[in-house]
Amino acid sequence: MQIGEILDRNAVMLRVKAADKRKALAILAEVAARNFALDQDAVLDALAEREAEGSTGIGHGVAAPHARVAGLSRLRGMFVRLEQPLAFGAVDEQPVDLIFALLAPPDAGSDHLRALARVSRLLRQPALRQQLRRAATADELHALLMQDTTASSSAA
């Protein structure tokens, strides 16, 4: 599973303002609706329902919200860097500023879990997190995520 297979350039944003976790999820739903022709309310509901089961804050300022959403034919990813970190209920209780959201078709099976594991491994890298936080443009964010995918897949 390659990040490039799921992360569209148009679904990468930086300097996103969100007052709280719900607003951050709403922004992700808006990005999904605009880029993947999905119902914004359905995406928000799916992300919020999954978040209610337990926080997707994985630590070190990173969250990986994910949900299964009708209307998708394949896995889709979105990445946002928040302007200000916010409480996300992360496992390390640190605020979150880097969010990689993953949406899967209802019948995605284990592909959904493999993609989620890939995103988690990717964002556990301290050097990459630091570079993502310093990136000046959304294109730079996207390139960093793509470059790391290439490097880590050739090392695997």
Q: Which properties best describe this structure?
A:
single chain, alpha/beta, disordered C terminus
Description:
The model is unreliable at 148-156 (pLDDT under 50). With 156 residues, the chain is of the alpha/beta class. The chain is built from five helices and six strands, in the order βααβββββααα. It has a single domain, classed as Mannitol-specific EII, Chain A (3-Layer(aba) Sandwich), CATH 3.40.930.10.
Short account of what is shown:
The protein has 5 helices and 6 strands; from the N terminus they run βααβββββααα.
Distance between the termini: 12 Å
- Secondary structural class: alpha/beta
Name given to the CATH architecture:
3-Layer(aba) Sandwich
The percentage helix is 40-55%
The CATH class:
Alpha Beta
Q: Could you report the average pLDDT, rounded to the nearest whole number? A: 90
Helix/strand order, N-terminal first? EHHEEEEEHHH
- Largest sheet features: 6 strands, mixed
Strand content: 15-25%
* Total domains: 1
Unreliable residue stretches: 148-156
Computed over alpha carbons, the radius of gyration is: 14 Å
For the record, what is the CATH homologous superfamily label? Answer: Mannitol-specific EII, Chain A
- Determine the CATH topology: Mannitol-specific EII, Chain A
Q: What is the general shape?
A: globular
